[in-house]
Amino acid sequence: xxHDAPQATGPSKLVIRNIGLILSGALEKPILDGDTIVAExxxxxxxGRYKDLNTEGATTIVDANGTTVTPGLIxxxxxPVAGDWTPRQNQINWIDSSLHGGITTMISAGExxxxxxxxxxxxxxxxxxxxxxxxxxxxPGGVKVHAGAPVIECEMVxxxxxxxxxxxxxxxxxxxxxxxxxxxxxxxxVGWARKYGxxxxxxxxxxxxxxSGLIDKDVVLEADTDVVGHINGGHTALPDDQIRCICEGCxxxxxxxxxxxERSALYTLRIAREMGDxxxxxxxxxxxxxxxxxxLGILRMVSMLSSIGELPAELAFCLATGNTARMxxxxxGLIEVGRAADxxxxxxxxxxxxxxxxxxxxxxxxxxxxxxxxxxxxxxxRSRNTPxxxxxxxxxxx
Length: 398
Fold this sequence. Notes:
GO terms for molecular function: hydrolase activity, acting on carbon-nitrogen (but not peptide) bonds, in cyclic amides. It comes from Bradyrhizobium zhengyangense. It holds the Pfam family Amidohydro_1. This is Amidohydrolase family protein. By secondary structure, this protein is of the alpha/beta class. The chain is 27% helix and 20% strand. It contains eleven helices and 20 strands. The protein has helices at 94-99, 121-138, 158-166, 183-195, 217-223, 240-249, 262-275, 297-307, 313-319, 322-328, 357-362, and strands at 13-17, 21-23, 31-32, 36-40, 43-48, 60-63, 68-71, 73-78, 85-86, 91-92, 103-108, 144-146, 201-202, 227-228, 253-257, 281-284, 343-347, 368-374, 377-380, 394-397. The strands form five sheets. It has a six-stranded mixed β-sheet, with helices on one face. A five-stranded mixed β-sheet has the order 5-4-1-6-20, with no helix packed on it. Strands 13-14-15-16 form a four-stranded parallel β-sheet, with helices on both faces. It is globular, with a radius of gyration of 20 Å.
């Protein structure tokens, strides 16, 4: 089982040189000019041409060998439980496997699969505080798991949200997975959460686990959560007219997940593009779930939305990185000075007909991952889960 990942023990300086393509994660400028990135003590300090940057004193040098560097991918919708284990599939190392799929950050939508999960107010608050602190301490493989997302119940009062926020809880689990399933109650509690800096997500569509139920457009719009969770269903999606109504009726985040209805995912993407609201679209897996663990789930979503959804690949990557980072108020997800030095280094898969990584993704192929870096530390090299890349980076000095 993957346990605590190594952290830097002193001053560090990472230099990634000989980069063929830098994808920024930002919709407004998805491709950056440069062949080198410098990071010091886990933060990006410079991006540009090698000849123009100060690369002296590097503690780690990575030769990208002409490959592509993207921000670390963010999974906006996961259901962690304890450590790197999921009882839903009785599987260990699922977070580490996701790291090999380029995931460097995960956002919990509720620790709902915890065996014996408490429904009483005292118990659910205690579990949320425990999960928030435990996962931030654990960091499986280095992955940043933002956990501690309580599933709200009708008996809760404003003081409960104030107490959780003071203890470090910053997320709500999916509204609708617990006893709160009506719009007025949800809106009241979402308002309390927002007042104390806790971000909210709502279950959208048909029931997914025992205890959940249908959450339709009326409840979604009245609840007014910060993120419309799995708008394409988890697994069962709402009808198209309701999806359109949600897209047009609010300005909140539109989350598309791997474990949802693929046709509805493409429909949501089309509506968001028509509205000029592509910045609202973020990606998650909604795993682990009944369909299993999907280490390549975010890469598969990027490839599907680019190829079938006809979205340029460099923009599709933004949905899995910068869009989520901005919406979730994270310091990662974008390649810009001051952000966390979380990167995925990848290339087109061997034998893909695409001429380069962007064309191969737009043709529907998954890229091959050669390295992941979190907080300026190399965490993995050649991925055990993606197809082999045409070219791979290498650590040339450390």
